[in-house]
Amino acid sequence: MAELRPYPLSALVRRALTELEARGTLFDLPRRKLYTPSGRHDLRARHHGFVASTPLGPAAGPHTQMAQNIALAWLGGCRIIELKTVQIMDELRIPRPCIDMQTIGYNVEWSQELKLEESLEEYVKGAMLVKILRASGQLEVDPRDQLLYDMSVGYDLAGIRSERVQAFIDGILDCSAIVDRLRAEIPDEFKQYRDLDFPTRLSDTLTLSTFHGCPPDEIEKIIEFLLEEKGIHSTVKLNPTLLGPARARELLGETLGYDALTIPDSAFEKDTQWQQAVDFCGRLGDRAAGLGLSFGVKFSNTLIVGNHRDFFPKSEEVMYLSGPPLHVLAVNLVGRFRETFADRFPISFSAGIDKQNFADAAAIGLCPITVCSDLLKPGGYGRASAYLSELHSRMDAVGASDLPSYIVRAYGEGAAALEALSLAADDPTLAACRAALDGGGDLAAAAGDHMDAWVSATLLRNTRRYVAACTADDRYAQARNAKLPRKVGSHLELFDCLSCNKCVPVCPNDANFVLETPPREQAILKLRRGADGWVAREDGTLTIAKKTQYANFADFCNECGNCDVFCPEDGGPYVVKPRFFGSLADLHEFADHDGFFITGGGAEIHARLGGAAYRVDLAGDQVRYRGPGFDLRFRADDPAATVEGDGPDAEVDLTHYFVIRWIRDAVFAPGQTSYVRLLADEPADAQPHPAT
Length: 692
Ligand code: SF4
Ligand code: SF4
Hints:
The protein is of the alpha/beta class.
């Protein structure tokens, strides 16, 4: 269903603390994909002065919308979590599908799809979940692990000043009341975690997201308000249109070959111009410094382009581009910004980050380096740990063990940057730095107080090199990014498929999941009530050929469409595969597709199949099966011989009973830890939307 539903912390905790042992996964992320810190590489980085164990983060977007997303990002090695942008308009109607990852990445998404109050609680829940996972002893975690959250708000001053957005920000700054309430929800069997020192101030930093077309004076007023009245270290996310129409179009078209893409003139006319951004950044930097706060910029927002494809509805005139081409545009903006401001402002970065270029973004001193599009590809959150492994390799290649020394060594610019520091020729520091650089020594020890300046001078030189290199790199060009995901021409059905498993990790909300069920064949029974009772006949066979089946938890599925893009079969896993709701009310309300709701510890199953409503109640081996015009009772092991009850004159087909029963049994098979299984075990009053 398009609406997301928060999930109880109690069931999230049960899953987090049982799944790894039971299934070798955590929120469906395989153990081998979990980030393991390296004792040899110190990836600590600073964001507005606060230390995180890695500079990597999920960008404010689909990967930070729900509590389990936050846990998954952390499991992949992300240590600066950009919480999804919230705004006063929190009842959005977004076209579905809203994410097109067939090639480079487009979306028509917007801000949080949960209500403001739900978002706050979801973020707190995610932070508590991470803390519990960290304390659980089941993972290899650096005892000094440091995780930062960056809140994101939009989109105009009136909205940000509104009571509800203010309550959200204040709630992030002090979430102790929510933490205390949620502590009590940690299940009794895990009560030792109730006393953990959960964060009660989730963040001290904020990134302002503005509308495409937000006037520059509005941006400045919002940041002033955040600095002066909220006392928050602030970042403003800027648009790629800052490059100006000529340069943006040249990069996108002539340089990268995306000739089919058009950037509307209005995008440039309405957006902040370069000089306006330079001016307000200068003023805001001064204002923040005067208040003892930090101000930074983020490159970049997505790029608005005409909707020339047939993926989104034609009612959408524009869409938002991300991925490889945005990387080049945003890196060019970083270069231009640094030519103006040198290293005065911290730069947060999100644009086409992937395994290959993450280490380059680190080499030019960007932090946080956040990612969205690449995590939507097969592998999902599991791709993140590979970025960090690649960074480890790149650090090893240049003999660096921490990020500052990596910046100095990464591109061989350290020596020239050292000369630019204007140290006296006979200054022993100069000799020590040269010796350390040439001999693989400790750069920080050699440079002493000059280390920050050395890093700063080097990252400016690195930036120039990387701007040139990535602009010329054809891996960002249209020709290298035109291949569509493979489709084989078959259509999905309820059971059985190619079992490629892609739909599970590509879902940012972890809504798709695996069900294990023994392959089976069942004669289809059809029952007719005669003068002497019910008469059964067999008519064909119902078959499950594969042990591994796929299903969808509708409460976490906002119908973004991403799993459909990567599924080799047609139809969309979130549409065709068994779709479970967390409440009966939602099963009834969202009746566009078939679905299931299981409650009563698995004893009560509601289903909509072929558009018709069914209900199965189980009591030992006794079954009550209700559907359109019938209400039957029989023994599970022999329905034909034991059936009784009311029915129509026409035959009652037991096919749907067997489908419901198999699906229910798969959900409740030993070792199953799906959201559906755990929710069915929750007491009714702990469920978000109790059955009606
Ligand atoms: S299940 Fe598919 S459509 Fe639903 S949220 Fe996940 S990726 Fe999107
Ligand atoms: S539903 Fe599609 S993506 Fe999912 S396992 Fe089956 S074939 Fe693969």
